[in-house]
Fold:
Amino acid sequence: MTKLKVAVIGCGSIAQHRHLPEYASNKNVQLVAVCDIVEARANEVAEKYGVKAFTDYKELVKSGEIDAVSVCSPNYLHAPISIEALSNGLHVLCEKPMATSQEEAEAMIQAAEKSGKKLMIAHNQRFVRSHQIARKLIENGEVGKIYSFRTAFGHPGPEGWSVDGKNSWFFEKDKAFIGAMGDLGVHKTDLLRYLLGEEIVEVGAFVETSSKEFADVDDTAVCVLKTESGTIGTLAASWSFTASEDNSTIIYGEKATLRLEDNPTYSLVAQYTNGEVVNYELGKIQSNDNGGQKNTHVIEEFVGAIVEDRDVPISGTEGMKSLAVILAALKSNDTKTIVRV
Structure:
């Protein structure tokens, strides 16, 4: 079988920690090129993987040398690069948040439809074992009616993990468009939609900068969310959890409470109203901390969808629905009103 020829655009931390090593270890993939606006970085990564280096993404996507790309650029370039790649007949895996506006997201989806190529958004929380099992428990009625939920994603901030530290694009509004809410919050809006099997329809949010004085984006956000069936819960996203990472979700149901990634030993704890407790030991969630799972399953799902010509698990439309919640949260904070998604 001929291998899928892949390039990675943007050689920052997410590319170096996730996309590149996962492509390199995938038997169906031939890594062909990398691209970064910083020439020295592009060359260094290219040398490490024995591939070609580019500094201009347009030149790369028009080169005729590749079948698919990962878009790991700053957020404001997600849509332009993805659209350019799709328009040149390439499959696209785009990091989250997929775009900086509804219009951009729609343009990406249209470009994918027009080209007949696959567009997948890298929402990796759907591939975490505890989240998948919890979804099944909710789906098959074991939890009963969902009464409420709370989810949090927080860590000390990108300066500890971005290749550029405090000078990272993550902290610049014109490049990131949104801070912790876009970096972490969008993961959790996607997770809640996946777990609950329904859409979030109303958002009330406070979005602030409390710990990163040098940043011109938010570093802490707390949202109240309401689903289409009327369930309410909270979402917190923060770069100000300075001691350790929190990546937990709790679902409060009629028959059980599910605690996901809330216990250091058990990835999922199901506490039933009859007193029974089931502990699931599933290994640590993907994380930048030591011991976190190294394989996010995003790359294998993307490659598998292309090779087997099946639908990607997280389409552009799914990415847009998760983005819409974040955009509503920003609007809620700006207008001091509850916003319909």
